[in-house]
């Protein structure tokens, strides 16, 4: 395989000149650049990025840790992070933590050993200490782990407000919120905070049932509805679910048990990812997170941190959410 | 940050000995290994994988090119490839080609420049020449691009047989198959081959309508049904769809237009990915591809090729499929 010396000889220039062309550094005349590029093309020369990464201490690889990459929300988020990062010549190393702290710790050391330039952390694990110890740019999704690391989130509080106000405007008087685990310091908990405050404002009774985030599958949510929610479901006429999959599982449970949706029970979800967009039987009422925008901002935030190392400012980004009226309210 | 010399000094051994421990090469006594490992732990030493990759010409990174990583089939496939590769210390660089040849060509040169150890190719593009030029282990999914590269596929012919026989056994006499683009040399075309042969065997008329694969979204399939299928739908009493998303789009079109499923029209899909597993309204009848197993085999095939470089044998793998009886037949 051709190396940089072969290219220099073929182009009739020095190795330093070829290196300058490769790295777009220093002054190079148009003519010289043309000669070098021709020589590279003729020799089918492919610059060894690993060698350049070592030299420049930059790999142009971002690590992205998600709880489950087959979950429609995260697969869509990864897609948009990847598309946006590719435009800036960054690649994505994918890590599927399954929210297991041990698996995540292995990933973190693996990413660090591979000298990724930065990490996008979208996991829900309790253990954030391992991240704080890394000497790497990190951006988190929907989570504040330290004031050193910026976060990107959708406006969870506003989403909770809109969802609860929508149920109340539709006539609901006995409200339930099915949330994720509130013991984790996730920004998604603001949805539950807003739910409480809006119910208090309207002098309405409210209940919150906490789920687990360690398993985001439909099977888990179906069991969860049967075991944790079914017994008290007749007490409620409106349910705000913290994600669309649990909302659909609740819809199925209700209709299979003779409860008419939306006449007797109104259901609103959260996310509006590809599963919800495809589902038409029924179309769920839900709060749409702008997943494409979240992916773009995660990508641009981490790349800005990598490329402007001396910047001290931490830019958190909160993007807006939107009500999607469907057939379940 | 600690380097290998610091570790050697702390452990009271030579740099060569530390290197042997890191690479599991040559004889090392238990006691020496313990001393080196303790020194590494005390110094928080993280071996620089990039430097080791250069030295060993191995990055332990696999490139994986998919048409759309948000598609439920591919996000599930990636998940299982990743989980399986991680067990063998390989990481996955994700490339989302959107089936655009130009985007894919950029990815291929990027992967080659980053010295990935191998590529898992799951795209549908026409252009396979770029892959053949690479001096890299490649495994393809559902596609034969050359007898130098092994492929992994589910038994598409068998899937087509089972689906068509199922429709005929349920009483269908006028059959339609909605397929992907048959001009591409994809193994999925065997589903259409089997459909034809089974109809011929039973002396039944049949029609095939070809779709495009460049866009796998629900919106595309909804438009496709309205523009390409709706006009002639009344001619058929059984439809074998080449994927579950088009099957669901067809179900929605039929029910919205007063055609009763399964009484007047029977529909069978293909894939049984996470979307189909979650969908209960209705539960689609479909052919299940064993996605977990496909992911595992893709991962083990490419890693075997990388680690046993002198092996000449090409091992193609075809895994079995299964009928999942739902409510649409």
Quick synopsis:
The first copy, chain A, contains 13 helices and 12 strands.
Q: Under the CATH scheme, which architecture of the largest domain in chain A would be assigned?
A: 3-Layer(aba) Sandwich
Largest interface: A-B, 49 and 49 residues
Number of domains of chain A: 3
DSSP strand content of chain A: 15-25%
Task: Provide structural commentary.
Two copies of one chain form a homodimer. In chain A, the strands form two sheets. Chain A has a six-stranded parallel sheet with strand order 2-1-3-4-5-11, with helices on both faces. Chain A has a six-stranded mixed sheet with strand order 7-6-8-9-10-12, with helices on both faces. In chain A, 44% of the residues lie in helices and 16% in strands. Chain A has three domains: 4-47, Orthogonal Bundle (434 Repressor (Amino-terminal Domain)), CATH 1.10.260.40; 61-154 and 292-318, Response regulator (Rossmann fold, 3-Layer(aba) Sandwich); 156-290, 3-Layer(aba) Sandwich (Rossmann fold). Chain A is built from 13 helices and twelve strands. With 329 residues, chain A is of the alpha/beta class. Chain A starts with a helix and ends in a 5-residue tail after the last strand. Chain A has helices at 4-11, 15-23, 30-42, 49-56, 72-87, 101-113, 129-133, 156-169, 189-201, 218-229, 244-256, 274-278, 291-307; strands at residues 61-66, 91-96, 118-121, 138-141, 151-154, 175-179, 206-210, 238-241, 266-271, 285-288, 317-319, 322-324. At the A-B interface, α4, α5, β2, α6 and α11 of A face α4, α5, β2, α6 and α11 of B. β2 (91-96) of chain A pairs antiparallel with β2 of chain B, so a sheet runs across the interface.
